[in-house]
Automatic annotation (TrEMBL):
Name of a matching Pfam family: Methyltrans_SAM
Keywords: Methyltransferase, S-adenosyl-L-methionine, Transferase
Name of the protein in question: S-adenosylmethionine-dependent methyltransferase domain-containing protein
GO biological process, one term: methylation
Top-level taxonomic group: Bacteria
InterPro entries (UniProt xref): Glyco_hydro_b, SAM-dep_methyl-trfase, SAM-dependent_MTases_sf
S-adenosylmethionine-dependent methyltransferase domain boundaries: 60-190
GO molecular function list: methyltransferase activity
Length: 273
């Protein structure tokens, strides 16, 4: 069984399957009509409005993506702990590490529940995973344990992303690759404010000080921001100049049994080759 499918979409909602459970979640950009019958939607195991209405499923369950086992949860903010459309990026990260060789030092900022960190560590990299939420880091560490990767070199850091990077610069620490999923808005563990348009340039300026002399790749994922993927390409060019290759695009999900495509976010990435 695939770990995720977009079964249908329409009228402000998605109908999705995560593992063996079907969820209905709101999505205001979906202004088109549904394809499936009303009964299919009504049979969902959980429906999110202001909270979850649950039937015949637990609040926490396990799914598998390739070699990883991941715990999903019905969170108060409609999310489940993974963004399945990032699977393309996870595979790309794994390929870059395999191409570059073992022993890369990778920094994963806004690391959330740790899927990219686990992919990188399983591929042979040493990972520093930074997130501002203690509970989310705990969730990521559980995913590490579930996936049988407790022996892999991952440092779990509770910190504000900008503060951590500036501290690493003062220490003289360097990284061969950067992964980040900066939110549109957020707070650090000590109340630090993150605003995408204002804070990302500050973070990138700090990152320039900790990128190694032989960098391999950088990945930026972004959601719920009113800008195009070309913006990420432009800031990556500011950071890395004319060397390497820059790619940009949208996070896309194809609906099952349909040619409809749902865009959920944007991405930009730089690679040495």
């Amino acid at each position: 069984m695939d770990f995720y499918q977009l079964l249908d979409s329409g009228e402000g909602e998605r109908l999705e399957r995560f593992g063996k459970y079907v969820l209905r979640r709101p999505d205001p950009q979906i202004i088109w009509k549904r394809s499936l019958q009303k009964e299919e939607w009504e049979n969902a195991n959980a429906v999110f409005t202001s909270d979850w209405d649950i039937k015949n499923m637990p609040r926490e369950w396990i799914v598998e993506w390739e070699e990883l086992k991941l715990e999903l949860k019905l969170t108060p903010f409609k999310h489940t702990g993974i963004f399945p459309e990032q699977a393309e990026q996870w595979r790309w990260i794994r390929e870059r590490i395999a191409f570059s060789g073992q022993g890369l030092g990778i920094l994963n900022l806004f690391g959330y529940t740790g899927v990219a960190s686990l992919v990188a560590a399983a591929a042979g990299a040493s990972v520093v995973h930074v997130d501002a939420s203690r509970s989310t880091i705990g969730w990521a560490r559980k995913n590490q344990e579930l996936s049988g990767l407790k022996d892999k070199p991952i440092r779990w850091i509770l910190d504000d992303a900008v503060k951590f990077v500036l501290r690493e610069a003062r220490r003289g620490n360097k990284y061969d690759a950067i992964i980040m999923d900066p939110p549109v808005y957020g707070h650090g563990p000590e109340g630090e404010v993150w605003q995408f348009n204002k804070s990302l340039p500050v973070l990138l300026e700090a990152l320039a000080k900790i990128i190694s002399n032989d960098p391999k790749f950088i990945v930026i994922n972004a959601y719920a921001i009113s800008t195009s993927a070309y913006t990420l390409g432009n800031v990556l060019k500011d950071l890395m100049g004319d060397k390497g290759k820059i790619e940009t695009g949208e996070h896309l999900v194809k609906e099952e049994g349909s040619d409809r495509i749902l865009s959920t976010g944007i991405w930009g990435r730089w690679s040495k080759i």
